[in-house]
Design brief:
heterodimer; A: 262 residues; alpha/beta; 9-stranded mixed sheet; two-stranded antiparallel ribbon; 8 helices; globular; B: 318 residues; 7-stranded parallel sheet; 5-stranded parallel sheet; 9 helices; 28% strand; elongated
């Protein structure tokens, strides 16, 4: 069995930042492995360690800069990686769900995985829709927001879906399937030094849209980003000033006033 | 004239609150496009649901009687057929766990763009303008659609729930469900709170977030909770890390709490967390970041290191 894991490098933003047009000024941006994808990688690697799957392949849409993030996934135990990028993608302002689906669909056609694991959403643009969109496009079954996967995979994946309000749904999904993975499903490992060394020797293939047979028009998307701004704060918070003892004293007084403590 | 179709959300025999919010959002949008607002309720006790959904501004409720609970294949097939039948301009759904389990599939099937987790909607000329957040709520963005039609999922709690009684046409929609195409089966539900304290019953919650950094540091917060006679709760990352059981999680995917006092310690206030605690009577935030989203809903705040403030506070009562 082969597992394909979608891995994204997301932009992280400092507490203080400036906006330049429809983007945050690059000076205030960092990069990190998408938190949800970290859990998806861990789940795939655990499936591999349990002997359930033979190969874990990652796919990332992103420029060369994100290879460090891809190597993190390889260091954690993925077997090889695919990175998709070219000049067309470089020029796209916003890669929407349709665009990502078109690219990932082509990768699935080449790789023919039995299972695709994808983070529920990404920490930067938070679409939360690409996994299910991909499943429909490649004619796989799917389950969204999975926080438990029974590793005893046969023709069916038994999963739990995390609904709102502390309720979980137990669902059986026929394979092949796409599962979108929620944080907390496992405990993602840190890459070991040995893993980091081994990752350098693992295959990281780069592909263009042409390599994958994806038409350039497929990634233009219908969603355009037209503005970005800081949300207006409507706060009327009372901020207590002073040292810790002084502010703790203010809070203690409030708690006494409220009858929380005598 | 361009109609709106909104698909409501329900679970275990109850319409979810977002269903009434969808009515408000759908009506606003229908007023802008000059069309009718159609609702669809799929599975469950659809007739009873339809009566409750007949609120002011609803033109039609389409009922699809198929199974008790949500199944994404049934939803995806039905919504696709309703779209073909009604030809709405926009389809609205909840940005809920279930909404995200079928709406993207409908968009892919119908080859329509999808815009998710929308907090505001408007129509500018021919184009739909959707407001979304990025980077965990640090920025808001507007997106415009270069398409005549789209699927849109709305964030829960952003529109007021529709009220009043309407005179909608309630019609059964005879969806043709291809049972062979149903690839998943719901086998049950479980509550995660079993066997632990019920944080929804607490008058005072001391709640901890990522700012606590290490599991060992939880002790200083436990000491504070003990001193106050309060119950310990947390934001999602603490539960994900296994430091507290899932029953202690406050938020969209955890519990919704309404204590008299909620002390948020080292919690930035991501939207999913705020959804679960904004109904608290008095909210106190202890956080080093004065711009953290929690400050927008807090009544009182201490902008300082929790490792200094929390022990000092516990000492006040010991």
């Amino acid at each position: 069995m082969k597992v394909l894991v979608t891995v994204k490098e997301v932009a992280t933003v400092e507490d203080e930042f400036e906006i330049d047009g429809t983007a945050i000024d690059e000076r205030y941006l960092g990069a990190d492995l998408n938190e949800w994808d970290d859990y998806a990688i861990e789940e795939a690697v655990q499936l591999s360690e349990d002997g359930v799957v033979d190969e874990v392949v990652t796919v990332t849409i992103g420029p060369e800069d994100c290879e460090q993030t891809i190597r993190q996934a390889l260091a954690k135990g993925a077997d090889r990686a695919i990175r998709v990028w070219d000049d067309t993608l470089e020029g796209v302002d916003l890669l929407d769900v349709d665009a990502k689906t078109a690219i990932l669909e082509a990768v699935v056609e080449e790789e023919a995985p039995d299972l695709v694991l994808s983070g529920v959403q990404s920490g930067d643009d938070s679409w939360g829709a690409t996994g299910v969109s991909l499943a429909e496009s490649i004619d796989f079954q799917w389950a969204a927001v999975v926080n438990d996967l029974d590793h005893d995979l046969g023709d069916v994946a038994s999963v739990r879906r995390e609904l709102e309000g502390g309720v979980e749904e137990l669902t059986d999904v026929e394979l092949p399937a796409v599962l979108t993975i929620q944080t907390g499903i496992n405990e993602p490992r840190y890459a070991s030094l040995r893993g980091i060394r081994m990752a350098q020797r693992k295959e990281l293939a780069t592909k263009t849209l042409a390599d994958l047979g994806v038409d350039e028009s497929a990634v233009e998307g219908a969603v355009r980003l037209t503005d970005m701004y800081e949300p207006e704060s409507e706060t009327d918070v009372t901020v207590w000033e002073g040292g810790a003892e002084e502010t703790a004293g203010e809070l203690a007084e409030l708690l006494r006033d409220k009858g929380v403590v005598a | 004239m361009s109609d709106i179709l909104a698909i409501v959300d329900h679970r275990r025999g109850e319409l979810r609150e977002v269903s009434y919010e969808l009515v408000t959002a759908g009506r606003e949008l229908a007023d802008e496009t000059g069309g009718d607002l159609h609702l669809a309720v799929i599975s469950g006790t659809v007739e009873a649901f339809a009566e409750k959904l007949d609120r002011e501004g609803v033109d039609a409720v389409h009922t699809v009687d198929h199974g008790e609970e949500f199944n994404h294949d049934v939803y995806a097939q039905t919504v696709t057929q309703l779209y073909d039948e009604l030809a709405p301009e926009y389809v609205l759904a909840a940005n809920s766990v279930n909404g995200l389990d079928y709406a993207p599939a409908v968009a892919a099937e119908l080859d329509l763009p999808i815009v998710t987790d929308v907090v505001d909607l408007a129509v500018d000329g021919e184009s739909l303008v959707a407001t979304r957040e990025m980077y965990g709520g640090k920025v808001e963005t507007t997106t415009e659609l270069d398409a005549n039609s789209a699927i849109v999922t709305i964030r829960e709690g952003e529109w007021p729930a529709a009220e009043g009684t309407g005179d909608a046409a309630i019609e059964a929609f005879d969806a043709e469900i291809d049972e062979d195409a149903i690839g998943s089966t719901v086998t049950g539900f479980e509550e995660v709170a079993a066997g632990d304290v019920d944080i929804t019953e607490a008058d005072v919650l001391v709640s901890i977030g990522r700012g606590i950094e290490e599991e060992e540091n939880l002790d200083i917060v436990r000491d504070l909770a003990d001193a106050l006679g309060a119950t310990l709760s947390s934001s999602r990352p603490i539960v994900d890390a296994g430091w507290l059981p899932a029953s202690r999680q406050v938020g969209q995917s955890g519990k919704v709490v309404t204590p008299d006092v909620y002390i948020a310690i080292g919690i930035s206030g991501a939207v999913q967390h705020v959804a679960g605690m904004k109904g608290s009577d008095t909210i106190v935030a202890i956080n080093t970041d004065p711009n953290a989203p929690i400050m927008d809903i807090a009544d009182y705040a201490i902008v300082d290191d929790l490792f200094d403030v929390v022990p000092a506070l516990a000492e006040e009562f010991q």
